[in-house]
Design goal:
The chain is α+β, with helices and mostly antiparallel strands. The longest helix has 31 residues. The radius of gyration is 21 Å and the shape is globular. It is built from four helices and 14 strands.
Length: 288
Amino acid sequence: MKKNLFVTILLVLITTTSKAQNAKEIMQKVIDRNNGTTEISRVRLSTCRVIKEGKKYVCADAPRIKVLDMVRKDYGPKEKDHKTVSIIIEPASEKGIGFLQYDYEQIDKDTDQWLYLSALGKVKRIVSGNENEPKAGSFFGTEFSYEDMESIHIDDYTYTILGSETYHKRPCWVIESIPGKKRAQKSNYSKFMDWIDKKQYIALKSILFNRQGKKIKKIYNNDIETIDNILVPRKTLVFNLETKRRTYLVYEKIAFNKTVSDAFFSQRTLTDSVFRESTLKKYQSYLK
């Protein structure tokens, strides 16, 4: 009896360890999935407050729509550092508002973010209240937070496979990610649950929990296409369960692996409209 109990406990421990290792390996593959060395895209953001009509959520008022041009370039020996510029093209009243972000592979180096308000002619660095607090605010007034825009460091979290489910006819792992102590101090989230496509290694659905452990957001990646041999979710929906607001992010046009100048990823792009517009015009010619 004692021997059988010992074997049972040992098998549980081995299985648990194996699951934890496999979960991390799966998430590493999600992070490492090919997304090109550069990306140029035209993005439409549509945000509204929603109400439930029957079984569906619909906009309670006219959605706020913003059209952006976004440019990304990867750096470093493993191309794990990223620089991204996002510029509002429409509406005309917000044209020229820009966002600059640097993501780093180095685990102890936080993402740098800057916001440029064209009406004020000022660049504002986005920071938290102090080093042990998460950032507040949203990306261009949408339901994507500044934290949602940051790249993930694999070692910032512990991972567990909760099970397997079929989601939209796709076999998926359901994986729980919990931030470590250091990351938890700077995050608005206490954990994530991701439905990872077993074949494509892409998150089809995510549930985000706030610091109190309550579900706060649901994110869905839809209309997944292969463009230039790269998987692209053409439409992403984020639904904020707390504010009852949702944002659709739609890639209207996109191109990968085009030549992009290093000089474009600087605050000059935010503040120098002549430089910005002339460079964007060139990049826009790549879009399809």
